[in-house]
Design goal:
The chain is of the alpha+beta class. Helix content is 25%, strand content 25%.
Length: 297
């Protein structure tokens, strides 16, 4: 299988992803024996719960410093010292210093909700060829609501993929008033491109959440979180009904790679040029939370 390459907005370079657990992923999603294990154990919530408990045990804290070194993370960005984390999971959903992720101040902008590799499409109903030619997005299945899907079919969609090496808190892309989070239960397949090249449908069959964010300028924005292997827990930290600022924290994922999806009403947002151009070539764009994802149409 080919390497995962993406465009880094901050460096201006095409880079190759260091995949955490790459050997296991390629075996699970590319080997017939791996497929048996995948469907018997790995996709099931109990597997992710068991692995999450391992990552929450006190002895797992010994993994923190080697992980930081191996993946070149900058502890200067962390809100707490690396030695202070009582488990690997606590480190995994660490907070950052506010100055490490400044939020774009333009009142006409919307920002990426998470650090990650992003794909953006101006029209959700026209998405095809994601990771592999012929794979189409199933918006009604994703939202679990055909009427809601019809409302957003002609609007913009941004898929943000978080790797295990990324900062794992997710944020609001614009200011507004968020409603209650709706949970849609499902299995926990990987959302790494190694897996999504096999079946894009993991995005709309995995466990996921849907939150509607009412805004003054952009209509109602849908914010979604997608669970994945070893991410059985999606934690919401916001308060429904209480106004939030752009870039305000919405919640966090416990251990593992995962994704968010942001949906906009038709005609409300124009996505950034570098995002749209790279996505048209099936190339993800790496950008940090708080940087511009689009602007008021």
């Amino acid at each position: 299988m080919e390497a995962i390459r993406y465009y880094n907005r901050h460096s201006g370079n095409i880079e190759t992803e260091q995949v955490y657990g790459e050997g296991f992923l390629r075996w699970s999603y590319g080997n017939p024996l791996g497929a048996i294990s995948l469907n018997a154990f790995v996709k099931r919530p109990f597997f992710s719960k068991w692995y999450g408990q391992r990552m929450s045990a006190p002895e797992s804290s010994a993994r923190v410093l080697p992980f930081i070194k191996q993946y070149g993370l900058d502890p200067a960005d962390f809100a707490d010292a690396p030695e202070s984390y009582r488990s690997f999971n606590e480190f995994f959903f660490r907070k950052l210093k506010p100055e490490a992720r400044p939020i774009d101040a333009d009142e006409n902008s919307v920002v990426f909700p998470a650090d990650g590799r992003h794909l953006g499409f101006q029209k959700a109903s026209g998405i095809s060829g994601v990771f592999v030619k012929g794979q189409k997005f199933d918006l009604p299945s994703l939202l679990g609501d055909a009427k809601l899907a019809a409302k957003y079919a002609e609007g913009a969609l941004v898929l943000s993929r978080l790797c295990p090496v990324d900062y794992h808190r997710f944020h609001f892309p614009v200011a507004g008033i968020p409603g209650e989070t709706r949970l849609i239960e499902g299995p926990l397949f990987s959302v790494n491109p190694i897996a999504l090249r096999q079946k894009l449908s993991y995005l709309w069959t995995n466990k996921r959440t849907v939150t509607e964010l009412r805004t003054e300028k952009f209509g109602t924005v849908i914010c979604m979180e997608i669970g994945a292997t070893c991410v059985g827990s999606i934690h919401q930290t916001y308060t429904p009904g209480r106004p939030v600022r752009k870039g305000g924290e919405k919640g966090y994922f416990a251990f593992g790679g995962s994704s968010t999806i942001t949906l906009f009403e038709p005609g409300s947002v124009v996505l950034e040029e570098d995002l749209v151009e790279n996505s048209a070539k099936q190339t993800e764009l790496y950008a940090r939370i708080g940087t511009r994802m689009g602007r008021f149409a």
